[in-house]
Each structure stands twice: as C-alpha cells, then as structure tokens.
Amino acid sequence: MHRLVGRELEGVDGEDRVVSRRDCFLFLIQEKFEVKKLVNFLKQDAEDDKNLVNQEKYFGCAEIEM
User: Fold this and answer.
1) Residues 53, 44: Cα–Cα separation, whole Å
2) Which of 1, 6, 17, 25 is the most exposed place for a label (fewest CB within 10 A)?
3) Distance between CA 26 and CA 49 in Å, rounded?
4) Buried b or exposed e, range 14-43, using 16+ CB within 10 angstroms
5) Which among 25, 27, 20, 22 is positioned nearest to 1, based on CA atoms?
C-alpha cells in the first residue's frame, strides 16, 4: 500500500509513480464520463416527467370542460 504525501507517492519509484498517476487520471476521466451520462439521464427523466404532468393537466382540463 502506498501513501500519498503531497503530490508524491511514498515508497513508489519513478516509473511506478507515472503508472499510478496515469491510472488515477484514467479513472477520473471514466468517472467524469459516468457522471455526465447520469446527469443526461436525469435531465431526460425530469423532462419526461414534466411532459407527463402537462399531458395529465391537459386531459384533466378536457374532462372538466365536458
């Protein structure tokens, strides 16, 4: 197990440090992509819900007017 001290990994040599940083960077890119996918899904879901509510309001008003 390595410990992060400041910006350096304690007990890790040069090449290993580069690999560790690269792996961390790739992980963060993947996480950012997943978060963006989730945000887009939630936005679409909220839009779908809003459309459904508006549709139900329209049908409710049409029934009242009959």
Assistant:
1) 14
2) 1
3) 35
4) eeeeeeeeeeeeeeeeeeeeeeeeeeeeee
5) 20
Length of the chain in residues, anyone? 66
Q: What is the Cα–Cα distance from 10 to 15, expressed in whole angstroms?
A: 13
| Residue type at 7 in one-letter notation | R
Query: What string of H, E and C letters represents the secondary structure of 33-65?
Result: HHHHHHHHHHHHHHHHHHHHHHHHHHHHHHHHH
Q: Average pLDDT of 25-54?
A: 97
pLDDT tens-digit readout, 9-18: 556 566 766 7
